[in-house]
Amino acid sequence: MSNLSLSNDQHLPTNPSVTDRINKKDEKECRYEQLFSPYHPSKSYVLYFINSLTTEAELKMLCNVIKGATDFIFDTESDIRSYTPALIQVLIVQEDPEPSLVLLIETTHLPDISSNRFREIQNLFYHLFRIGTNLYSWGPLVDELERFQIYQLFSISIPSNVFNVQRIFTGWFNEHINMKPDDNNNTTDYDDSIVINAPQFDPELFLPPTMMNHLKIINNQLWSLQDAIA
Fold it and tell me: In terms of pTM, does the model score above 0.85?
C-alpha cells in the first residue's frame, strides 16, 4: 500500500532508524528517476474517477464491462498523514483493440450510502470479486482491502483467484537470474518463458541485480515494485 502525498509541511518521524530508512528510500527513488525515463504503457487506457459525482449511468456501464472481463489489477493508497484508506485503483484488462480501463475509486468522496449510486459502486465490487475472476496485486491484496471495509463497499470474503505478484516475482527472479547460460538457451522454445539479461554489475545502480537479489533472499525480503522495475 502506498501513501498519498498531500502537502509539503509533513514532518519526518522522530525515530532515527525510520527517518534513515525513509531518507535512503527517497534517495534511491530520486536516483531511479534520473536513470530511467518515465514508464509509458504499451496499451492504451481510459481513466474513470469513481466518487460522489459519478453518474448512475456511468457506473452501470462500468459494471457491464467488469462482467465481461476476468482479469483485474489492484492497488490501494492511504492518506499519508491520517493513514485513512483513500483510494482503490483497479485496472480492468481487456482484449485488444479495446483499451484497458482504470478505475480510481475515491473512498473518502463516495455518494451517500443510501443512494442508488452507492449501491451501484457496491455492485462493481460484487462482480469484481465474483467466482472465476483473477485479482493481481503487488502485495497481499486481502490485507490491503481489509482497511477499506469501513466504507461498506464489499465483503472481505473474496471467492476470486487472488495472486500476490510481489511474492511470485521474488521467487521467479531468484530462479531465473541464477540460471546458467545453457539453462536460458533451453527455455527459449517456450512462449511463456522470459530470459533475463540483467547486468552482473552496473555502476549507475545502487546495487547490481545479482547482489540485490542475494541480499533479499538471505534476509527473506520481498522486492519493492521500484526495485523490480528498475
Answer: no
